[in-house]
Amino acid sequence: MQYSKYFDHTILKADATRENVLALCKEALEHDFASVCVNGYRTKLVAEQLRGSNVKVCTVVGFPLGAMSTAAKAYETEQAIKDGAQEIDMVVNIGALKDKDYDTVLQDIVAVKHACGDVLLKVIIETCLLSDEEKVKVCQLVVEAKAEYVKTSTGFSTSGATEHDVALMKSTVAGKALVKASGGIRDYETAQKMIAAGADRLGTSATIKIVNDSKK
């Protein structure tokens, strides 16, 4: 796979300005990244900038805590797609997972997947808050819900992606879903380790540095 297509070029910080987002879109087009990943408010702007290109519009849903209602997540998904989102990155209900309320976790993902239709869904499980047993269980639920990806992290919790977690997720989904690593991927060496561990996509705001370093 073309190296640049591993990357979701990401800007999710609360104080991101219009100019910041426009600059990100320009970089993504220049480097032909997989997507530009933004909060819902910026979806229309990004869709306008990327129209006609091979770079996808990716919008986060239920971000960053995953603790809102399923109905709210489904509506947020529908609105994002209306605004031009071509990929959705949702956060699971982590509290329900901790409660072992697996039916709630599953139905939460299923509802967003239904709202997605043919739009690709990545499910953020926030690995830093989970035991290995919980990581395995939620990966199984992601597969059951027929989401396309399971994703490590929001980048807004206690830590981000690790090689261990990526490898565990990859082995658990067993080819029935893909794996996205995100959170703390700030250099070429780390990016390479995540890919070697099994990541099919990387989410990072340090994309330009990583790609430039890859050419050295």
From TrEMBL:
Listed SMART domains: DeoC
Quote the Gene3D superfamilies the UniProt record gives. Answer: Aldolase class I
Taken from the UniProt entry, a GO cellular component term is: cytoplasm
What are this entry's molecular-function GO terms? deoxyribose-phosphate aldolase activity
Q: Which CDD domains match?
A: DeoC
What are the protein's UniProt keywords?
Cytoplasm, Lyase, Schiff base
> Which SUPFAM superfamilies is this protein grouped with?
Aldolase
Lyase as UniProt keyword:
yes
* Highest rank taxon of the organism: Eukaryota
Supply the enzyme class, top level.
Answer: lyase
GO BP term, example:
deoxyribose phosphate catabolic process
Q: Which InterPro entries match?
A: Aldolase_TIM, DeoC, DeoC/FbaB/LacD_aldolase, DeoC_typeI
Active site per the UniProt annotation: K151, K180
- Which reaction equations make up its catalytic activity? 2-deoxy-D-ribose 5-phosphate = D-glyceraldehyde 3-phosphate + acetaldehyde
Carries keyword Cytoplasm? yes
Q: What is the E.C. number?
A: 4.1.2.4
Q: What family name appears in the similarity comment?
A: Belongs to the DeoC/FbaB aldolase family. DeoC type 1 subfamily.
Q: What is this protein called?
A: deoxyribose-phosphate aldolase
Source organism per UniProt: Polysphondylium violaceum
